[in-house]
Write a structure and sequence with these properties.
The chain is mainly α. The protein has one domain (11-118). 45% of the residues lie in helices and 8% in strands. Strands 1-2-3 form a three-stranded antiparallel beta sheet. It starts with 10 loop residues before the first strand and ends in a 16-residue tail after the last helix.
């Protein structure tokens, strides 16, 4: 996906279940994450819990045409080994799609997901 005005791509690459997996946070991903987790992501400024992290990662994965999608539990299994890489990729993708978060982030040293220390 790209911003039709600027052409900016709202995705990042990450070695997850395969090398160079694309992660994209957009409106559809936020809605999918809300549907599966029952937690709000639009306008969210709260703590990043394990449920939110897993839901956002699952909803943000980009697949090639015909590629088998990972189940929600599969994403949790991969997260066990890749949690810090995932946090970095999701933070990067979040800032790309929500630039106003970056502007407000002066209080949090530029990391909109700074409260990740409390992942549960």
């Amino acid at each position: 996906m790209s911003d039709y005005l600027t052409g900016q791509r709202f995705e990042v690459s990450l070695d997850f279940d395969k090398p160079d997996r694309k992660v994209r946070i957009d409106f559809n991903a936020l809605c999918r994450a809300e549907e599966i987790s029952g937690h709000s992501f639009l306008g969210w400024e709260g703590e990043l819990t394990g449920v939110r992290l897993k839901a956002l990662m699952w909803a943000s994965l980009v697949y090639e045409p015909g590629e088998k999608r990972l189940s929600y539990d599969d994403v949790g299994d991969v997260l066990n080994a890749k949690i810090f890489d995932v946090l970095a990729a999701l933070t990067e993708a979040w800032v790309k799609v929500m630039p106003e978060v970056e502007a407000k982030a002066g209080k949090t040293n530029g990391d909109p997901l700074e409260s990740t220390a409390a992942v549960s």
